[in-house]
Amino acid sequence: LRGETAATKQVYGLDDPTTEVFGKQCLLARRLVERGVRFVELLCPNLGTDRWDQHGNLKEGHEKNSRAVDKPIAGLLKDLKSRGLLDETLVIWGGEFGRTIYSQGGLSKENYGRDHHPRCFTMWMAGGGSKGGAIHGETDDFSYNIVKDPVQVRDFHATVLQLLGYDHERFTYRAQGLDQRLTTVEPAKVVPELIA
Q1: Residue 156 has pLDDT above 80, yes or no
Q2: Measured distance CA(154)–CA(179) in Å, rounded
Q3: Is 152 helix (H, G, I), strand (E, B) or coil?
Q4: Mean pLDDT score of the chain, rounded to an integer?
Q5: pLDDT at residue number 107
Q6: 183/152 Cα distance (integer angstroms)
Q7: What are the tens digits of pLDDT across the range 65-92?
Q8: Cβ atoms < 10 Å from Cβ of 38
């Protein structure tokens, strides 16, 4: 990273101990993309608590995670765009599953957490042909059920594959009486509202 300017390092947060670790990951990701690496995965740094799967002291833990990643992610998107790389680079952010908004384990600070939740999940995409500024899907007031524009995981995967230039159905092969594919054996569809 020695060849990067001080201004670029600052955009990624390398000048702040809170954002430095993830900022380096994001800057390295940009450099890998510039060199033609087709897939890069970044992971939130371990800040002394479980990354996003916290079951106690949730407010403090998630605030730490957010402070560590927000500026570097913004820096990555800004830098990719300024170099003309965001149009051809799909950035996806997500966790491992949905979480409820209500308390798990009581209301004490140490026990306050959220249950695993299979019904609702938030992800975002930028660049790579995804539709900028769009919000798709909506939950009820308790974030418990989807009330508008649900997207199944298999449909999201089909959409991502489409954005990467692949027809998910062309990866189908017949095995043991089922049409096996990357998007599962259930029928999957591309979500056009997520594509620019």
Answers
A1: yes
A2: 14
A3: coil
A4: 89
A5: 62
A6: 10
A7: 999 999 999 999 999 999 999 999 999 9
A8: 7
Say what the pTM is: 0.87
Q: Which two tokens stand for residue 7?
A: 């201004």
92's tokens? 């996806």
**Burial class of residue 182 (count of CB atoms within 10 Å of its CB; 0-12, 13-18, 19+):** middle
Read off the tokens for 74: 């913004």
Residues in CB range of 104: below 8 A, 6 or more apart: 55, 111, 112, 113, 114, 115
Letter string b/e over residues 8-31, b meaning 16 or more CB atoms within 10 A of that residue's CB:
bbebbbbeeeebbbbbbbbbebbe
**Distance between CA atoms of residues 176 and 162, nearest Å:** 27
Locate 9 and state its tokens: 């390092």
Over 90: is that where the pLDDT of 55 sits? no
Element (H, E) at 161: helix 153-163
**Closest by Cα among 117, 99, 119 to 58:** 99
Say which residue the tokens 């998910």 belong to. 168
- With contact defined as beta carbons under 8 Å apart, do 22 and 30 qualify? no
